[in-house]
Amino acid sequence: MPDTNPPRNLLPKRTIRDAAGLAAAGLLPHGADAAGLEAVAERYAIAVTPAMAALIRPEDAADPIAAQYVPHVAELETAPHEVADPTADAPFTPVPGVVHRYPDRALLKPLLACPVYCRFCFRREVVGPGGGLLDTAQLEAAIAWFAATPQVREVILTGGDPLMLSPRRLGWLLERLAAIPHIEILRVHTRVPVADPARVTAELAAAMDLEKPLYLCLHANHAREFTAEAATALRRLTGAGVVLLGQSVLLRGVSDSAAALEELFRAMLRHRVKPYYLHQLDAAPGTSRFEVPAEEGRAILAALRFKVTGLAWPTYVQERPEGGGKAPIGPRWDDNALS
Helix, strand or coil for residue 232? Predict the structure, then answer.
């Protein structure tokens, strides 16, 4: 594979899944280490959808969209503090696909495939095109666990990305969970409406139209991700009664300024998405280049506090060690100043 990009004449019509495809689409930075990127691809999955490829500005070496999706040789460097399972899912997995860390809610991971593979993903050791799809027996076992655990009132579908399921399969799963009497809330964590908005069909939206409350938590990190196509997808979801929340990761080179976060949060609100969580980066292998120290994150938020409506204000959180869950780490205020 050549070490320079060919002219970028045509946008890809299918998801790009390898370094050669990125080079052919003109999406690699000038002088990229082709052999190094192929080594990255052997360890960590690559997927860049046409929707995201169209947003990348390859002439900009600091493009925030490319930073999220285009692999980098630094991913092969594991820092001493980085671990394969930074959120400690494994010790809290009573049955395959379920993670139970909090008393009143639990995760259900029906599959481990995503429309795109973020270069900072905290589950990057397990997600990929193989999918980690739970079969029917495993899903039945997971549903039975929820039915037998009355203290759990909320099911959070995550993965991978639950909206990679077919509308029929997703609807079946949601209906089964909603039928459990003590389950009061369903939540879906996804990147699909921005990363692959064409997947949000009327059928998919209808699958989420339930009697019980369903919240969709959208992962987006930059205002440019809110395209016209994403707007259509999100409007389709709100039309089905889905409540939209937003979650983002504080990332070096993507969202590490008050201006970038302000644009992102304002873009969310314009599309009826309430900013919910701003995550401190989880220490997954090969992600140090994205790290923003928490003190810097607090200062960024402090600079933003009086510039935006309270509707745009998320909770800044960090995972506690050994599966301790998310803890708020946002700015602390006295009468007049940040402490």
Answer: helix
Q: How far is CA 259 from CA 128, 222, 224, 255, 281, in A?
A: 33, 11, 13, 8, 19
Residue 300 CB contacts under 8 Å (≥ 6 apart), including other chains = 250, 256, 257, 258, 261, 292
| 180-235 pLDDT tens trace | 999 999 999 999 999 999 999 999 999 999 999 999 999 999 999 999 999 999 99
Distance CA 169, CA 6 (A): 41
d(CA 170, CA 180): 16
Domain 90-328 grouped into CATH 3.20.20.70: yes
DSSP conformation class of 337: S
Give the pTM: 0.93
State the Cα–Cα distance between residues 64 and 110, nearest whole angstrom. 30
Task: Determine the angle formed by the axes of helices 258-270 and 294-304, rounding to 10 degrees.
Answer: 60
- Cα separation values, 159 from 68, 124, 149, 299, Å: 18, 11, 21, 31
Q: In the numeric block, which tokens belong to residue 219? A: 């992962």
Closest by alpha carbon to 92, among 78, 109, 111?
109
Question: What residue segments make up the domains of the chain, in order of their start?
Answer: 19-76, 90-328
Q: How far is CA 151 from the centre of its chain?
A: 27
Rounded CA-CA distance 260/301 in Å is 11
